[in-house]
Write a structure and sequence with these properties.
Its cofactor is Ca(2+). Belongs to the sulfatase family. Pfam families: Sulfatase. By secondary structure, this protein is α+β, with helices and mostly antiparallel strands. The protein contains nine helices and 13 strands. The strands form four sheets. It has a five-stranded mixed sheet with strand order 6-5-2-1-7, with helices on one face. A hairpin with a 2-residue loop joins strand 5 and strand 6. The two termini are 33 Å apart. The C terminus is likely disordered.
Length: 432
């Protein structure tokens, strides 16, 4: 694996090399500086986050993340035996904030007056160049003719950071189409149909059974969430997926929020519509709860420097509204809410939400652990639990005192991290 992990690292057995990958170069946290690899958790803790295997890769600081990861991926392809299978997961950090790019790519967009858009475009050009290099390396290494390249994003663009989903509604962090409809493509000599656009329902969980099917694995008898969609993509066959549960977020409900309207009136006694959730069944999409800002943001609306948003089309909701229904095939921009005129469809989808929720595992949201602070681990984001020689449940007096001293030290760490965060924000302000 190469790139961004962001799937937990509290214990060594959570790391990529303990989760099936033979090698790893990348970051463990969700975001960070593309050159220095400093990553901050809010204003509370900052540390170095670039790892080669299980060690911090200090010597690689200064290399732009996209270029660094592409070079490692090329080396993996160069050293791989073409007669054995290969799964390479390349999770590039671009185009995630902070918006940074090498000067070579920034110069392509000198005429772009919006600095956020300029940096965003430069980051994507660098990414595009990297993908082209990988395809060329696949050909040079003799792997191309029997390869499948899947480009899959995890969410829509963030308008606050140069992205644009126009004319779709909303952005990253929301359940509107602009937040959940992501860019993706499949490139392979094995495709029977090429140069076509698929409008089938495909979810990220479908890649796993699809890749297993391409590799010739026997059909799994486990109850997987995903479907093998290779026939849909490569041959134009009907897609086995007819529904997508985007999310059910039980912790989104505000404590003390009354149930009478959200459950009894808006939810027909079927579903608590104060819970943040979204579901797609066929052409229909249902949203409940606080599903995020639903503005329509044209590219020209993005602020330039200190200017405010221009021509921003704000959504307007009635007080107490907690259910929306759209026919996405006919209305992909989610402009015509049909919840009031199609109550029978709303009821059907609320029942499906309740059925999905019945199978859900209870959410676990432990509090932040001050022992994770990089200041306690050589300035590096790394595992802090379950380490060799560490007793997690220290019962002796010395252990308790040592922990107390570390927690006190963490308060100083947080103060230091605050100043680091403020400094990094000032630097970014100079960029934009």
């Amino acid at each position: 694996m190469v790139g961004k992990w962001h799937l937990g690292f509290s214990r060594p057995n959570c790391l990529p090399t303990q989760r099936g990958f033979q090698s790893f170069l990348g970051t463990l946290t969700g975001s960070g500086d593309h050159f220095s690899y400093q990553s901050c958790d809010g204003a509370e803790a900052c540390g170095f986050d670039l790892h080669d295997g299980n060690r911090p890769a200090w010597e690689m600081r200064g290399n732009y993340s996209t270029l660094l990861y592409i070079e490692r991926a090329k080396k993996i392809l160069q050293s791989h035996n073409s007669h054995t299978p290969l799964f390479l997961y390349l999770s590039l950090q671009a185009a995630h904030a902070p918006l940074q790019a090498p000067d070579l790519f920034l110069h392509h967009y000198n005429e772009q007056s919006n600095r956020q858009r300029r940096h965003y475009a430069a980051m994507l050009s660098c990414l595009d160049e990297g993908v082209a290099q990988l395809v060329e390396e696949l050909k040079t290494s003799g792997l191309y003719q029997n390869s499948v390249l899947i480009y899959s994003s995890d969410n829509g663009g963030q308008p606050l950071s140069g992205g644009s989903n126009w004319p779709l509604r909303g952005g990253k962090g929301t359940y509107w189409e602009g937040g959940i409809r992501a860019v993706g493509f499949v490139h392979s000599p094995l495709l029977k149909r090429k140069g076509i656009v698929s409008k089938a329902l495909i979810h990220v969980s479908d890649w796993y059974p699809t890749l297993l099917g391409i590799a010739g694995s026997l059909q799994s008898h486990h109850n997987l969430d995903g479907h093998n969609v290779w026939g849909c993509i490569g041959e134009g066959l009907s897609c086995p997926r007819t529904e997508i549960l985007f999310n059910i977020d039980p912790v989104s409900r505000k404590p003390g929020e009354p149930y009478d309207k959200a459950l009894v009136l808006n939810g027909f006694g079927i579903w608590d519509t104060a819970v943040r959730a979204a579901l797609r069944v066929g052409d229909w999409k249902l949203l409940t709860g606080n599903v995020g800002d639903g503005d329509w943001i044209p590219p020209q609306a993005l602020p330039v420097g200190p200017e405010q948003w221009q021509k921003l089309e704000k959504r307007r909701n009635k007080l107490g509204k907690s259910v929306w229904l759209f026919n996405i095939s006919a209305d992909p921009y989610e402009r015509f809410d049909l919840a009031e005129v199609r109550p029978e469809v709303v009821k059907h989808l609320l029942i499906r939400l309740a059925e999905y929720n019945h199978t859900a595992v209870m959410a676990r949201n432990p509090p932040d652990d001050p022992m994770a602070d990089p200041e306690l681990h050589g300035g590096v984001w790394r595992p802090w639990l379950g380490l060799e020689g560490q007793e997690e449940n220290e019962k002796d007096e010395y252990g308790r005192k040592e922990k107390m001293l570390k927690v006190k030290h963490c308060k100083l760490c947080k103060l230091k991290a605050l100043f680091k965060k403020v400094g990094s924000r000032l630097e970014r302000k100079n960029l934009f």
